[in-house]
Amino acid sequence: MAPRRNDIADATEAVTAGTGGRGPSDARPDAGEPSGPHTDEAVAAGTAAPGTAAPGTAEPDASAADTAEPDTSAEDTSEPDNPATDHRGAGTGDDAPSSGTGEVAAGADGPGAPGPDDRVVAVRRVRGAGRHWRGAQLAVCGVLLAVAMTGGAIALSTDRAPASVPVAARAVDPGVLGGGNLDASIAALQAHLRSQPRDAGGWATLGLAYVEQARTKGDPARYPQAEKALGRSLSLAPDNDQALAGRAALAAARHDFAHALVHADQALRLNPYSERALSSRVDALVELGRYAEAAEAATTADERRPGVPVFTRYAYVHELRGDVRTARRVLKQALSVASSPGDTAYVAAQLGQLAWNQGDHGAALTYYARALAADDTYLPALEGRARAQAATGDRAAAIKGLETVVAQNPLPGPLVELGELYEARGAAGDRARARRQYALVDAWIALARANGVDADLDTALAAADHGDRRAALRAARAEWARRHTVHTADALAWALHVNGLDEEALPYARRAGATGYRNAAFLYHRGMIELATGHRTDGRASLSSALRLNPGFSPLGAERARKALEAAR
Q: Which of 265, 285, 291, 403 is deepest in the core (most CB within 10 A)?
């Protein structure tokens, strides 16, 4: 049941990083490009086809090829208009894929399938390669990508990004988790396409499944495969709204929101009721900072295809405008109509994140518990619970929880959080442990970029506090040049601050809060910048507001805010 119009009509970022400064060819493969049997076979089988290695990287060694499907628990991807499958991608090929080099593993546990520990080791190797052989870093990344990423090593947070930022964008799509296994669905699609290689819809669904696989399990190596699959689908059926919506989802997953908007609009011209396209359009407008248009798009989506994916986006648009009450009401409504464990886990985790943002750590823990009761492997809920535990003083449980999360998906957000918890604990060896987490962020960013993901926001946020400050500023400026959102404004303000450019930083810090979005980290950044520029009254007010809103917003930041506030009195 959709939210009432009179409840939501007056309100006006999914949570990931930037527009992506890529040309059209990067997000839009030539729909008419022929694909030989080996290319189709490789894409259908989930293996890297010749020539698909990231630019500047070496071809992966055969022993590292990603022939086994990642371990996921996502849902069936075959229904083109399932309300909860708005972020999946499409398919590829004319000639029937044979077995041979394109043989498909039946599931995540097939021969050669790397487990979470293998993936983390591979990411650590990339980190080491970058440290010892800077000139050869991308080549080493290319060799290790298949091992590191086949089972998944990043997610866009979720959600915010995550993710580095609350990735609304970082959450796993509910419909995919709701009642099936994504690996099994992909294996079935691959088998089908070997016998029916001209099935445009099948290729589109397979590509969408690769996008979902990459997004939920952190496997950016799937993005080139999804791109080829979607291109094949469109070569077979040019007016194919499912594949165009898949391209929108793929562009958004790569943080190329300008092209995500273009593809979503193309799909909606063909099918105004495509839930994937409607949802991707809201995401793109939010991530481009076009909030008024995003509110209109969310209202339109709610009118045409009310359901969990639209409700959660609608709620986030309200939250960005400071209307937390409406956001909470709409999410509770979404939870009440959740019809599967995946839906329940997804929406409950969103409610947990909303509660945590407002400093209601008890409610956050309750919602995360509900999410994990529905799916005890749901990583956004495990991560959120750890953050809430840290905020309530249960540091041991928080560290244990985040160690579990990063062992499976070493993403920038939880890596930084875990590193800061180690620093805050201060036990023997904790400083070295923290440094290792921060170094893994650099490895993640290198791998993401090698697969076409714009990671400038992740770079800016992590490097400003725990890395190369000049690199943080370069990344923040680049991201701001592409899109003007509250998150990019905050990131640029903080990068300027840590580089001693506080006068330039202050307008951006104030812009980050201009929509009414309530975020304790933003207030902390603003308060520190205000103090540095001599605005002591404003600085004290901002720091007090940050601690009042969410006193546990950061393991290190909250303590620094308290010390700065005390010193300014």
A: 285
- From the centroid of its chain, how far is CA 115? 21
Segment 10-24 shows an average pLDDT of 30
Distance CA 334, CA 365 (A): 19
Tell me if residue 77 falls in helix, strand or coil: coil
- How far does the chain reach from its first CA to its final CA, in angstroms? 51
Listed residue (464, 469, 564) closest to 523, CA to CA = 564
The interaxial angle of helices 182-195 and 37-45, nearest 10 deg, is 160
Which of 104-118, 123-137, 404-418 is predicted with the least confidence, judged by mean pLDDT?
Answer: 104-118
- Stretch 496-503: mean pLDDT, rounded? 98
Task: Residue 119: count other Cβ atoms within 10 Å of its Cβ.
Answer: 28
Q: State both tokens at 234.
A: 């469109």
Provide the token pair at 197: 């290689």
State how far the Cα of 540 lies from the Cα of 555, in Å rounded to an integer.
Answer: 20
Using CA atoms, how far residue 72 sits from 8, 42, 131, 176, 539, in Å, is 35, 20, 31, 10, 46
Q: Is the pTM of this model over 0.85?
A: no
Question: In this structure, what token pair is assigned to residue 324?
Answer: 């937390």
Instruction: Please give the distance of CA 312 from its chain centroid, rounded to a whole number.
Output: 15
Q: How far apart are CA 519 and CA 37, in angstroms?
A: 51
Q: Output DSSP code: residue 89.
A: B
Stretch among 40-44, 155-159, 500-504 having the lowest mean pLDDT: 155-159
For the ranges 163-172, 205-214, 268-277, the maximum mean pLDDT occurs at 268-277
